[in-house]
């Protein structure tokens, strides 16, 4: 398995887990979760360091960053009228990545 495949599998696994548990806030094409939960997910598969994984996720645009390039962003909940810091995971790429993985279209070296 290539590193790219490992990252894709991790991303898809996290999206699947969040869909099963419902432990996220849905905001259009994003799943909003706490930074602690996000880091817990990334820490499970130890093929790279947590910081390196965050850098890769940012560069692949799988998470949205704020203007200062930080992974947590503020989210205002209209129901509770509270603002919290969350990680915005882009979920709209899942179907394309699933299609690529199912057809073994990930490029091998």
Number of helical runs? Answer: 4
H/E element string? HEEHHEEEH
Low-confidence stretches: none
Mind summarizing the main beta sheet? Answer: 5 strands, antiparallel
- How much of the sequence lies in strands comes to 15-25%
Task: Tally the beta strands.
Answer: 5
Q: Which CATH class? A: Mainly Alpha
> What is the average per-residue confidence, as pLDDT, rounded to a whole number?
87
| Cα end-to-end separation | 10 Å
CATH architecture tag: Orthogonal Bundle
Characterize the overall form. globular
Q: Class by helix and strand content? A: alpha+beta
Q: What's the CATH topology label? A: Arc Repressor Mutant, subunit A
* Helix share, percent: 40-55%
Count of discrete domains: 1
Radius of gyration: 14 Å
